[in-house]
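Reminder: ligand-aware prediction takes two inputs, not one.
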Amino acid sequence: MEVAFLNLKKAYAELKNDLDCLWQDLHNDGSYILGSRLETFEKEFAEYLGVKHVIGVANGLDALTLSLNALGIGAGDEVIVPAHTFIASWLAISESGAIPVPVEVNMKDYLLDTSKIEAAITPRTRAIMPVHLYGRVCDMSKITALAQRYHLKVIEDAAQAHGAFESVSGKKAGTFGDVACFSFYPGKNLGCFGDGGCITTNDDETAEKIRLLRNYGSKVRYEHEIKGKNSRLDDLQAGVLSIKLKHLETWNARRQKIAKIYLKELQGVGDLVLPEDEPGHVWHIFSVLTPQREKLRAFLTAAGVGVIIHYPKPIYRQLAYQNTPSAEIGFQNTDKISSEILSLPMGPHLEVEEALFCVQTIKTFFK
Ligand SMILES: *Cc1c(COP(=O)(O)O)cnc(C)c1O
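Here is what comes back for the chain with pyridoxal-5'-phosphate:
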């Protein structure tokens, strides 16, 4: 049996009728950029999340960078970011001219260790960027309390957390920060057919600024109030996202069902450390930890089970970030996660039999 890490073909097949209609309609009205489909999707996603504004942009990295730009964060500023995340979180801070200041993650959920944030705050700190990695929401009550105490902005990186919510409050990822950023990269829980992203905010002024920034600094054609860039979400992608948004809850529920199977079946198998279950976790990634990661990975790959490592090399150990502040102290949890983590097949179209085949293969490995 071949088990794909993620099967996007089945996602298309499930929605084929709607998607094919969209393609036809798009060419009939010829509205490709900043058209009504973008406006509609922005409204729908804002309503779904419970925020005032959604602004579609070209990708998740731009969403983060434009957010920092709009909040006036740049050269000379510091932004607190988890040591363990996808590199885009750090790159956006660097691109804005500010300095990413990594803070260690905890071993409970691999998210920002809120007890270590305060020690990283300096007079130059302007913002905290919590990342809801793997589909689980960070401890936002602690983070927003700290941000208030130190007058810092909060920029959520919600690129892996469409529909995720905090289990206590029920509040969704993307509604806590001054701004929040999503990616619609095809493999995300809500993904389009290319690159895409968006920013959410409840602040009218910030929203207005981002709308200018994404479109050459222009509201009225050929009038440029500020120096912006070209970072728009295409109408085709917006149309795809409107269709897929209707299925987000169902598709996340299917991910949760697969996660429950993994959690039940892999309990106590070998030396595996399993992720914690929590209501509101949308399982963008289902990962296990084992010191035998490399061997297990080779074994699963040979058996036809698609596995990926998120992420194999800590950012502070990358050449691009060789001058990271506090790198000399190191980040033990980040190092451990990077060397032991393995992501199992996961997605709304993964069959139960496929998940069970993956489980069986893992059990064989540890026997
Ligand atoms: C995917 C991702 C991004 C970047 O999104 P792109 O659309 O690929 O630019 C940012 N942060 C995290 C945590 C991501 O997973």
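The longest strand covers residues 53-57. The CA atoms of residues 84 and 283 lie 17 Å apart. We will return to this case in the review session.
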